[in-house]
């Protein structure tokens, strides 16, 4: 229970469904703020208090579990290291993989609980198996604007078997109305946004404080120096703003970051046509069920609320190869590619490389 409206209604719905529910708030910050500064961030003392008030209304036990050290190691330190290596990570996926559906779920099972329910907008659909049992599949939420299946694409079949997402069949406005009808104080509480451990939303500033200033060159694809930067880690492929180039392009076209080179501390810029890729190699593949066999038709999504693109994909051990039917711009190493079959999540991988292949796959 984060202290927000979604997890509050999720807890209430689990009670309505007949489950024995205990509320748990995760203390993830090693120096939690007393009050929320804005709609950004989470895990403040205020949030814990909001979650406790909801638990009191529901009449359920409530606990705060301190996972700050694990969160720092698996999410914050990973985020810093990825940017330092020139990649663009998604900390929400890492948090779901390492904290909410690993550390939290493992502790819950060890204490005798059966499953974890959260306020994520996604659906678990049960389909018959050949042996008479059922298979639990992860699907997109009904509310496309709030769908969070992308950041849950790291869950495997065993984790899905012990996960519930009670909000997946409802839109956000209806959730707020339900919360108000139930008398929850948090019914109109703003949603949290962006990266929870960077409450002011200034990712570049946070990285500079963590990694220090590291001046270097901004160059074009021919190696000509066009400007300076204070740290290559603050740039990502596809970025246009904040380049502060001293020399305008000869053709007058805007320029974008096309590559980050941490080994030479260079940021490479070029025209928009250099951003289009149609081939992705992903590692750390995670499957929400059986791994695909052979080449399969899928939808591929590379951003949390981005477009889904028609593609083919095939697994190669811990890696996955994805071939897009159209070019996609701004695909950066470190991002995640999540694969879909209709509304069903097939699995995900961390993007290791993206490129343009002129010849179609045989």
From TrEMBL:
Marked site (Interaction with tRNA) residue numbers: 120, 335
Amino acids binding ATP: 26, 119
Intracellular or extracellular location(s): Cytoplasm
Pfam entry (one): tRNA_Me_trans
All copies of domain tRNA-specific 2-thiouridylase MnmA-like C-terminal, residue ranges: 279-351
Catalytic-site annotation from UniProt: 95 (nucleophile), 196 (cysteine persulfide intermediate)
Domain tRNA-specific 2-thiouridylase MnmA-like central residues, every copy: 206-270
Catalytic activity: S-sulfanyl-L-cysteinyl-[protein] + uridine(34) in tRNA + AH2 + ATP = 2-thiouridine(34) in tRNA + L-cysteinyl-[protein] + A + AMP + diphosphate + H(+)
Enzyme class, spelled out: transferase
InterPro entries per UniProt: MnmA-like (IPR004506), MnmA-like_C (IPR046885), MnmA-like_central (IPR046884), MnmA-like_central_sf (IPR023382), Rossmann-like_a/b/a_fold (IPR014729)
Keywords: ATP-binding, Cytoplasm, Disulfide bond, Nucleotide-binding, RNA-binding, Transferase, tRNA processing, tRNA-binding
Function: Catalyzes the 2-thiolation of uridine at the wobble position (U34) of tRNA, leading to the formation of s(2)U34.
UniProt similarity note: Belongs to the MnmA/TRMU family.
NCBIfam families from the UniProt entry: PRK00143.1, trmU
Entries under HAMAP family matching the protein: tRNA_thiouridyl_MnmA
The protein, known as: tRNA-specific 2-thiouridylase MnmA
Organism: Terrabacter terrae
Source organism phylogeny: Bacteria, Bacillati, Actinomycetota, Actinomycetes, Micrococcales
Annotated gene: mnmA
